[in-house]
Every structure is written in structure tokens, then in C-alpha cells.
Specification:
- The protein is of the alpha+beta class.
- The protein is about 35% helix and about 20% strand.
- It contains 5 helices and 5 strands, in the order H-E-E-H-E-E-H-E-H-H.
- Strands 1, 2, 3, 4 and 5 form a 5-stranded antiparallel β-sheet that branches.
- About 15% of the residues are buried.
Length: about 180
């Protein structure tokens, strides 16, 4: 009788452990592909900036890093960080937030062989952030979703990128998104 009870308890415990393990493993979040996190644009752009006094050398249209508070300056407020709940925001703050959606939020680049241009992946939460880049005749740009969905666009983009960087591979250019 005692042996049957022990066998029953061990079997029940193992069964519970099995189902808990399966539940935990299947409930884990799967990572989203980076391409789903924000709008993306790949472009060949000139390098700008002198590298002196805060004029960073960077690809054209790449955002500058945010200014850091200097010693003696006040720390940023909740309004500065846009942490106020929506009902407490003024019209000006809502307008500032809308303008921020039209900004480039992240980028990564590969420098060209001659160092004068860069192949850049820009990321923004809204495609409107790319309007100025797409209008620039000096820039050759491709929407990443077009490259991913169309083999012809991918070939055209890679050919354009290899004009400035001979050993360029599209997989080298990955930018975190929103």
C-alpha cells in the first residue's frame, strides 16, 4: 500500500512538472524581427561635420546625440522627458510629441571605401521622417520593406551600395528600432 502511494505521488509530481515546464516554454515571448520595429530606409548619403566643437562627423540626416546637462544645470523635468500622462499635456506638449514622431530615432551606417559617403539605415516611427531624405537628389534611398519584399529591388539596392562599398553585405546593417 505504501509503495503504491509513493508511486502515485512520484508519478503525479513528474506529470505536474512536465506540464508546468511545457507551459513555461510555450509562454515565452518570441522576439520580433527588427524590421517590424519602426519604418526603415536604406540610403547612400554624404558624410557631414568637421569633428570639432560638437560638429560631429556623421552621415547627412543622422540625428545629433542629445545635449548632456552641464555641471550646475537643472536635471530634466517630467515635461522634458515627456512622461506626463496624456490628460495633463498641453496643446504645445502634444504638438512637440507629434513632431518627435516625425524624427529619425535611430540609425547605423557603414562607411564607404573612400570615407566620403556612408550606407545608412535610418529608423523612424513614422515614414514622414524620411521626406527630406527622399527629396534629396544627392541621395539614393530604398525603403527596407521594398527590399525585403522584392528581389528586384534588393538587387538594385545592393548594386547601388556596392558602388560605394565593394564588399558590402546587407546583413551587416542592422539597427535597433522602436
Amino acid at each position: 500500500m505504501l509503495e503504491m502511494l509513493r508511486t502515485y505521488l512520484v508519478g503525479t509530481a513528474l506529470g505536474c512538472l512536465y506540464f508546468v515546464t511545457i507551459g513555461v516554454v510555450s509562454a515565452q515571448l518570441r522576439p520580433l524581427p527588427a524590421e517590424m520595429l519602426g519604418e526603415r530606409l536604406l540610403a547612400v548619403v554624404p558624410m557631414v561635420g568637421t569633428g570639432k566643437n560638437g560638429d560631429y562627423v556623421r552621415p547627412k540626416y543622422a540625428p545629433l546625440p542629445p545635449a548632456m546637462p552641464r555641471a550646475g544645470q537643472a536635471a530634466p523635468t517630467m515635461e522634458d522627458l515627456d512622461l506626463l500622462p496624456p490628460q495633463e499635456k498641453t496643446a504645445k506638449e502634444r504638438e512637440r510629441f507629434a513632431a518627435r514622431k516625425r524624427m529619425i530615432g535611430a540609425f547605423s551606417y557603414v562607411l564607404s571605401d573612400d570615407g566620403k559617403k556612408a550606407i545608412v539605415e535610418f529608423v523612424a516611427s513614422d515614414e514622414a521622417a524620411f521626406e527630406e531624405i527622399l527629396r534629396d537628389p544627392e541621395v539614393k534611398a530604398f525603403r527596407k520593406k521594398d527590399i525585403v519584399l522584392s528581389g528586384a529591388k534588393k538587387d538594385e539596392a545592393e548594386a547601388e551600395f556596392k558602388k560605394v562599398k565593394k564588399d558590402f553585405e546587407l546583413a551587416k546593417l542592422r539597427t535597433a528600432g522602436y
